[in-house]
Amino acid sequence: MRDSHPQALFDVLDESLAKSSSPLQLIQRNAKAIIKLNKAVKSLLPTEIKPMCRVANYRNNIIVIEVANASWMTRLNYEKINLLSALRTSILPSLSSIDIRINPDLMRKTKQNSSMNKQTVSTKQNMSERRISIETAQQLLRLAQRSPKGLKERFERLAALAGESTSATNRKG
């Protein structure tokens, strides 16, 4: 009986592709190279541009970078010369140029991600907005003592948003 144990898929693919020179092996190498190149390019770009672009391809000593829209394309064109020289010195000495293309899908993906982030941020803000200071709660309780019944209840509920410390003052008053 053979000894068999679980193996990572990447290890199995690497082993099988190392034995043969197949189109799949070429695709895998190209994909790995593009991923590494994308990381390198993003590390050289200003922070605001990073989510709006990605390396799409590298062929014939030309890097193809996709951007979300024309305004980001213009912004990246300003960085193009610095990026080209930095990539030539550090990673790709044979790099001849950078081709920038617009891909609207990047904007859609960025909007989806930012809307998800905004929802979580707004939820956190709502939770933090519902807290008031102890001093404000004490003022609300004093005001509630001099107010009619309906308004008094509302002031007391607002004062309760300050937490446990106001409930102690509420009991004393």
UniProtKB/TrEMBL annotation:
Short name of any one Pfam family annotated for the protein: DciA
Alphabetized InterPro entries for the sequence: DciA-like (IPR007922)
Protein name: DUF721 domain-containing protein
Species the sequence originates in: Providencia heimbachae ATCC 35613
Taxonomy of the source species: Bacteria, Pseudomonadati, Pseudomonadota, Gammaproteobacteria, Enterobacterales
